Records
---
Amino acid sequence: MNARSLLCSLALLALLPTARAAAPVQQIQATLAKPAVMCGRFDQTKQLTGIKKPLQAYGRFCVLKGRGILWQTLQPFPSTLRITRDAIVQIQDGRVAMKLDAQQEPVVKMINSVLFSLLAGDLSQLDQLFELDGSLRDGHWQVALKARQPALAKAIGDISLAGASYVDKVSMKEASGDRTDISFSAIKTGDGAMTAEEGALFD
Amino acid sequence: MTKPARHLQRLLALAWLLAVLLVAGHNAWLWLGQRASPDTDILALLPAASSKDAVRQQAFSHMVDSAQQKLVVLVGDRDWKRAQAGARAYLTVLHAHADLFAPISDDSAQWQSQWLDSLDRSRTLLLGDAQRAQLATVTAQQWSQRALGGLYGAFGGPRLGAWQDDPFGLFGDWVQERARETPVRPRDGMLFVERDGVSYALLLLELKAPAFSMQAQEQVVPLLAQARQAARAQADEVVSGGVVLHAAAASAQAGSESATIGAGSLLGILLLMWLTFRSLKPILYIALSIAVGCLGALSVSMLVFGKIHLLTLVFGASLIGIAQDYGIYFLCARLAAPATQDSATLLRRLLPGLALMLLAALIGYLGMALTPFPGLQQMAVFSALGLVFAWLTVACWFPQLIGPQTLRATPRAQGFGQSIARWPDLLGGFAWHLVLPAAVALIGLSIAGVARLHSSDDIRALQKSPPELLQDQMRISQLLELAAPVQFYLVRGASAEAVLQQEEALREKLQALVQRKLITGVQAVSNWAPSQQRQQDNLTLLRRALLEPQGESPDAVTLIAQAIGESPQWAQALRQRMLDKAQSITPEEFLATPAGAASRHLWLGQVDGQFASIVALRGLTDYRQLGQLAAVAEGMPGVQWVDKVGEISSVLRQYRIYMGWALLCAYAAIFALLALRYRRRAWRALAPPLLASLLTLGLFGWLGQPLQLFHVLAGLLVLGLGVDYGIFLLESSRDQRPHAWLTVGLSAASALLSFGLLALSHSPPLHAFGLTMLCGMLLVWLLAPLFTHPGPVAHATPDAQPDKESA
C-alpha cells in the first residue's frame, strides 16, 4: 500500500474548522462589498532572497463569485492563471503550461477557496484557516492572518490584507524572507467589469 | 488361551493405560496450560516450497507479509464533512483499544515535509519520463520563460521550497508524477480519495496481533463491527478490507462447521449404536476408543508439527467415522462368538483382520502424507495417528472390558444382519446373461462419464469468502488502485545497480501496457531511486539543456539572470545551487528515508548472493490478460513474471495427477497385502471400492462437476474404508456372515453420516471431498456383499476354522 508515502507535495494543507471570528473582523466583514463579478488591475512586487531587484509585474484580475479567479499577468511577459473549483490552469504563449485537476488533486478546491476569500475579503471563510487580528478605522481596515496549522504557515507564511469596500492590498511574507505585495486598483464590478476575452476564458 | 498370554494381555492393557494417561496429561497441558489454539492461515495449507527458488519465496512472503497485517477502511459520503465525521467516529471506537492496533493517525503534513527533506539533496537527479523527454526537446529560451513565469507569478502553481531550489519546476513535476502513483491525497488532516462524486476518508490500520490468530480475530472483528456502526451513523458508506476479516470469516465458518459436523457425526453414531445394542456400554466403549484416538492424534501431531491447523481438526471430525470400525468389528464379532469363547481368544482370532484393516487405512493415508501440502500431511498424520491410537485401545482394552455376556444384539440388528442372505450371488454364475450386459452398460456409462470429466485446479475456487467481503475488497482495490500482491515481476541482477537498470528497461516496456489501460501504473524502487547510470544520464541531460550554452545562444540560467538584471555570478551561484543538490542516491539510502517506507516491500536486497527486487502492478483488473504481462518478461534477462495464483493452481494440478497415480499404487499395494492372506479371493475385497470410485467419477462427469485434487483424495479414503468391508466379509465364515454384515452396515452408515456431513461444508475442498465420500461409500456398501458372496455351495474361507488356528 503506497498511499501513505505519496501524499504529495501540493497538499500541505491540513485544516480544521475552529473558533469564531473576533468582533472587529465581523465589523470589517460588514464594510466589504460582495459583488458577483469584480475585475481590476493588480500591481505586484516580489522581493526574493538572493535576488537583488524587486520583481515587478502587473496585469488584470477578475474574481467571479462561485466560479473562480482569473489572474492575467501582462508585464513583463504575458501569462494567464485560471483557478476554478475543478482545476488550476496556467496558460503561457497560448498553450496550457500547467494543469492541476481537482479530481486528481483535491487541494485545488482548497487553493481556489482560499484565494477567492483573500481577493474578495471573505474573512469568515478565512477564519477557519487563520487566526485573524484586525483593526478598523474610518472605514479602512487591516487584517493580519496567521495560519492555524503549522504546515500551512510554513507553506504560505504570514498574510496581511488591507482595504475599505474592497481589498486594496495583500502582503505575503514567507519564513524564507520572500515577500510579495500586491495592490489592487481600478476595480469595477457588475456586468461590464469583465471583458469579452476574459469571459471567454471562463467558458 | 494360556496363562502367560493372558498375563501378557493384562500387562499390555496396563501399559496402554499409562500411555493414555500421558497423552491426556499432555493434552490438558496443551489446551489448558499453554492455551494452544489451532492455526487458520489458509496459506499454511499450501506447499512450503513449491519451487526451490529462495528469492521467489522471499519475494512472495515479502509481498504477503506487508499486506497481511494491514486493515484498510474507507468511510465515504457525498459530503466530505460527513465522511470525515464518520471516519473520526470510527477511530474513536478504536482508540480505546490501542493494544490491538498500531498507531493509526499521524500528521500527514508534518510527515510529508520530512520525506521531502530526505530526497532534497538528490532532487536535481530525479527526473520523470515526461521531464526527460522535455529536456531533450524544449529550448533554453523556453525553459527560461517557464522559470520566469514561476518567479513572477503570484500564485505560480505548486512549488517546493525556495524558487532557487527548483527554478524550472522539475522536482515539483517529479513529485507530482510520484503522487500520481496513488489517488490518495491528504485533506484536512486525513487521507482522502474521491470516486464518482463520493468522498472517502481513508483509514490505515495496522493490526498488532497476527491476523490469523483466533484470539486476535475474536477481539478485533466485533470491535470493527462496532466502529463501522459508529461511522455509519455519520456517513453513508463504510468499506473495509484486510486479511484479518477474511481469516475471521473463514475460522468462524470452519469453527461452526467443525462443531456441527463433529456433533452430527457423533450423534448419528450414538443413535446407530443404541438401535443396534440397546445399551449404553458399546457406545461408551467406542466413544472411549475414539476419544483416545483423538487425544493421541492431537498430542502427537502437536509434538510433530508444533501447531495444528483448524482444517485438520475439521477433517479430524471425519476420523470418528473410521476409528469406530475397530470397535464395531470387535463388538459384532463378540455377538457372533459363542459364549464359551473368552474375549482374549476372540481378539486373537480377530487380530489378522484388524491388523489388515489398520494397515490398509494407513496405506490410504500414506498417499496423502506423501503430498507436499503441509496441510494434507498434517491431516494424514493426524488421522493415521488417531486410527493407531483407537486401534491400540481396542486391542489392549476391549478384551479386558467386554466379556462374553456383556452384549446382546437387538432384534432389529439381528434382522439387518440376516438381510445379507437376500443379496443375490451375482458372480455365482446363475444369471450371467443378465448381469454381464448390465455391468458392461454401467461400466461403459461410467467410463463415458469419466471421459467427460474436466478438471479445475484454480486455487481461488478453494477459498470462499463471504460475498460482501469480496465486494468490499474489490471496491478498495478499485478506489485505491492497489498493486496486486500475488502477481508481479521479479527482477534479479548481480548488483543493486544491475537490478535497477533492468527495472528501468522493464518499466519502459510496461508503458505500452499502461497506455492500453491493462494496468494503471507500476510501482518500483527505481521510480524513486533510479540506477546510478540513469542518475548520471539525468544530470548530463539537465546540464546540456539548462546549464550549458548551446553554440551562440546562452544557457537558460543566463537568460533568466539577464531578464531580472542579475549578474553572471548570480547565475553561476544558481547553477551551483542546482548542482549541489545532485548527490546520487542508492536504493538502500532511499528505503531508509520516510519516503522509502512504503516501497520497502519491493526491495529484496541481497538474497543468495544476488540482488532482487519486485516491480508491482497497479490497477490490474482483467486477469484474462495475464499472458500479455508474462510475455513482457520474455527475452529480458533477470526479469521473471511471478503469478502466485497461477503457480499454486498449477501445483494443485500436478498433485491431482500425482495423487491419481498414488491412488492406483495404493490399490496395487493393498492388493498385494490382501493377496498374502486371501490369495485368489483378494480381488473381491478391492473390486467394490474400485467400482464405486469409477461409478462416482462417472456420475460427476455426467453432472459436470469439475475434478479436483480433493476428489482424488476422497478416492483414497473410499479405498481405505471399502477394503475394510471386504475384509469384514472375507474374514467371516458363512455363519458369521450376518454379523459381518452388521459390522459393515454400522460402519458404512456412520461413515456416511460423518462424511456425508462434510458434503454440507461451505468450504469447497471439504464439500468436494464429502460428496465423493457420500457417493463412493454408499456404492461400496451396496457392492461389498455382491463380491464377497460365499457362493451356493459351502466354500470355506481361509479363516473358517479360527479356533483351531489360535489353539
Note: Strands of chain B lie at 70-77, 185-187, 190-195, 198-206, 237-242, 483-493, 521-523, 603-607, 610-618, 639-643.
---
Amino acid sequence: MFAVRELSLDIAAGEFVSLLGPSGSGKTTVLTMVAGFDAPSVGRIVIGGRDVTRLAPNHRNIGMVFQKYALFPHLTIRQNIAFPLKMRGKSQKAATSRRVDEMLELIQLSGYAERYPNQLSGGQQQRVAVARALAFEPPVLLMDEPLGALDKKLREVMQFEIKRLQERLGVTVVYVTHDQDEALTMSDRVAIMCNGRLMQCGTPAELYRQPSSEFVADFIGRMNFIDGDCLDSKGGKTIVRLSEGSVLNLRSVGNDRDCRCAPGKALRVAIRPERIRLVRRGQGGAEAFPGVVDASVFVGSTYIVVVRLADRPEASLHVQIAADGFIPFQRNDNVDVLLDEEAVHVFPLVERCAA
Amino acid sequence: MTNFISRSRSHRLSFRRLSSYSARFYSLSTSIVLATPLIAALAIGFLYPVLKLFALSFSGGTLAYYRRIVAEPLHLAVLTGTVQVALVVTVASLLLGFPVAYLMARLSKGPATVVAACVFIPLWTSVLIRSYAWVTLLQRNGIINELLIDTGVTDGPLKLIYTQSAVILAMTHVLMPFMILPIYSALRALPADYVRAARNLGAGSLRAFVAVTLPLSLPGVFAGSVMCFVLALGFYITPALVGGPGSMLMATLIGQQTTVLLDWPFAAALSTVLLAVTLLFVLLFRRTLSLSKGLNSVY
C-alpha cells in the first residue's frame, strides 16, 4: 500500500502552490513528509538546496498551520506566538516580545495577546496559527486545510487575508485543500492529486482550459462527457462518431488529440457547459446536433439548461447560458446544440480514478 | 392531478410557535426526580453515619477524646506517619505510573493492550489477594529472600516484611492503577497535532514533552494524585498485613480502637481527624489546579 507514489514537484521560492484532490488522495501525506512527521520510503525532499529528507522536524525550519490550528491551549496567544522563538533560544526577551507584537499587529489582533486560545473565535484562532507559523520567518509555510473548520463567509475573508500575508512576506506556501474554489482563487499553481499520484500541475487557468486527463477535467469545474468512437485521426484532424447519425468533426486544437486517437478506439469527449450554444431547431446549420431540453434551472447569474441529444437520449449535456432576465428554453423545446470546437477535449476511454 | 394536490396538502408540515428544551439536558423537575434516590442513598449511607460518628466523638459533651489524641505523642506520630506514607505512595505511583500511562497512550494497539492488561488485571483482583501476594514475596522464607540467599547476595534472610518500606511498596502496587488511568485518559485525549506543532516550531522531542505534553496532562496527574492520596490515607488491609507495629497507620489504629479496645468515642475522634485531614488535602489539591488558568480553560 502506498499513500503517495512517484510524486515530483518543483516549487519556486515565493510561490503559492496548492495540493488539491479528493480525500484519501495523499495530499496531507505529502505535507506531513515535507514537515518531517512521516518519512518517505523512497525519494528526496530538498528545500532551498538543502536535503531535508532525513532531518528531524524541529530542524527543518518550516512553518506549518494545522487543520485544527493546534494552538497550545495552556499558553496565551503571546506565549503561543513566542513559542518558536523561545525554542530557538536566539533572540532575547525584548526582541521576542517585539516580534510577537509585530506579528499580532500583522494579523490585527493586538489586543488579544494575554487571552487563551479558547477565548478567541475560530477565525481569530486561525490567524494566530498563521502568525505562530510565520513568527520565526520560515522560508516555507505548509498549510493543511487551514480553513476547513470555518464557515463559508469567513473562509472567503481568510483566503484573501492569507494571500495578502503571503504576498507581503514573500513566503513559499504549500497549501493542502479539497476545496477547488479555494485552490483556484489563491494559488499560483495547483497540483491535482488522485490515489497518491500527481495528475497534473499548472496554473488554475491551464488546469481549467487544458486538463491533461479525464480526472482533472472532471475534478476542476463542471464538465460534460459523451462517449464516442474515433472514426479517423490524422494531421490534427479528428472525426468522432457520437451516434449513428451524429459525427463530430474536430479540425484542430483542444487537447493533444493525435496521440490519443486511433481509428476505431473508444473515446470520451469533454466540453465545458459555457462552451456549448443552444439555438432553436433548424438554426444551427450542418455542424449542430439536434437535442431536446430536459430542464432549465435558474442558478443566479446563469441558467443551466439540460439537453438530451435527439438520437442519444441517454447522453445529457449541461449548458450554461447567461441569465438575461428571460427563460431561454423550456422543457421539451427542440433545439440545435453547437459545440465550441476549440474547447472540446478528447480522452481515451479508461477506468476513471475513483473520486 | 387534483388528487395529487389534496394528498400533498394533507401531508403538509407546519411549524407554529415552535419551541424546545435543549435535547442535551433533562428538565429541572426530571433531574430532581432522577437525582433523589442518589441523594437519599448518600444521606442514609454516608452523611448520617458520619454525623453520628462526629457526635459520638464529642460524647459526654467534652473535647476529652480530642485532647487524648493531642496529648499522646504516639497518636500524632501515627497521623503524621500516615500522611507521610500517603505522600510517598502518591509520588512513587506518579513516577512509576506516568511512564506506563504514556506508553499505553502511545503504543500501537497490540502492545498497548498488553500494557493495559498489566494494569487492569491487578485492579480487578481483590486487594486482600494482592496484599497476601506481597506477604509470600517478602516474608522471611519468601521468594525474594530465597533468591537473595541462593544468588549469594546475603547470607541470612533480610527483614523485608512488617516494615514501613514493605507498606509503601505494597500500597504503591495496589494504588498505581488509580494513578495510571486518569493520566492515560488525559494523554489519550491530547490531539497528536499539539506535539507535532511543537516539533514543527523547533522543539526537540524532550522539549516538546516538557512544554506541551506534560502541562496538558496535568489535570490527569492531579486527578490521579488526589485519588491515590485519599485512598492511601484511609488504607487498611495492606498496611495491616505487610506492616508491623512500628509502621502503624491511622486506619489500623482506628480499627484497633473499635475491635480490640472497644473505645468507640475515641475511634470516632480519630476518624473525624482523618476525615478532616483528607478534606483539607483535597481542597488544597483543587486549589492548586484552579490556579493555573490556562489549564482551566482547556478542561
Note: The mean pLDDT of chain B is 86.
